[in-house]
Amino acid sequence: MDAESRGEEPTSVPISALEHYEYCPRQAALIHVEGFFESNVETVRGDIAHHAVDVVGRTVDRRGQRAWHALPVFSDTHGIHGICDVVEMGPTGPVPVEHKSGQYRPGGPADLQVGAQALCLEEMFHTRVDVAVVFAGRNRKRSDVVIDDRLRARVDGAITGMRALIDTLHVPGPVLDARCRRCSLRPGCLPEGVTTAAEANLFVPRPEGGWDD
């Protein structure tokens, strides 16, 4: 039974968990349910890239535009919380800007992260946020992310799914596929165990005539 069914406040889901959940629910559960994390080249590169924007405070850029760095955000309506790398105050209101060390893939997990940040800013500033930005460090390029109804629905679905994992302390089983190659959690996740277990089922009788091996 989840917290809402017990008449309690729904569990607030970290915004960072949504990107993990979209990429792989098992990865999200290992990090946010079991507290397991491993670093690799990609995660270290990401930490370095975030260093410049993790200093809390307000700045004014060359265009005279105000911006907040490392701004804590939340939404009671959606039950999420987190920190925006940068929030720019444009002529139409706040715009979340997420910094990524690698490349940006349109429609990928990063969209959920800035989508959730946009929902928080809407609630905090009592306005509508129609666009967010992902800054990709690999090519130093800014990409707009439209906060439309489809993305909002994806964010809500990821929140619901991640909250269920947290409330039930459930860790999905491993799935060995292409995502595992770049995952820093692979040494502890052991996705190869799926193949090994399938190949070593002691309760399946060997074919007739195969007993002399």
Question: How would you explain this protein's 3D organization?
Answer:
This protein is of the alpha/beta class and 213 residues long. The protein has one domain (13-199): Lambda Exonuclease, Chain A (Alpha-Beta Complex), CATH 3.90.320.10. Helices cover 36% and strands 22% of the residues. It is built from 7 helices and 7 strands, in the order βαααββββαββααα. The chain has helices at residues 15-23, 25-32, 41-51, 109-125, 149-168, 186-189, 192-199, and strands at 13-14, 57-60, 66-75, 80-90, 93-100, 131-136, 141-146. Strands 1, 2, 3, 4, 5, 6 and 7 form a 7-stranded mixed beta sheet that branches. A hairpin with a 2-residue loop joins strand 4 (80-90) and strand 5 (93-100). Helix 1 (15-23) packs antiparallel against helix 4 (109-125), helix 1 packs across helix 5 (149-168) and helix 4 (109-125) crosses helix 5. The longest helix has 20 residues, at 149-168. The N and C termini lie far apart (51 Å).
Using the alpha-carbon principal axes, give the shape.
Answer: globular
Major beta-sheet overview: 7 strands, mixed
Q: For this structure, what is the CATH class?
A: Alpha Beta
Terminal residue distance: 51 Å
Q: CATH architecture, please?
A: Alpha-Beta Complex
DSSP summary: helix tally: 7
Number of domains: 1
The arrangement of helices and strands along the chain is: EHHHEEEEHEEHHH
Total DSSP E strands: 7
- What do we call the CATH topology? Lambda Exonuclease, Chain A
Structural class: alpha/beta
How much helix is in the residues? 25-40%
- Unreliable stretches: 196-204
- The amount of beta strand, in percent, is 15-25%
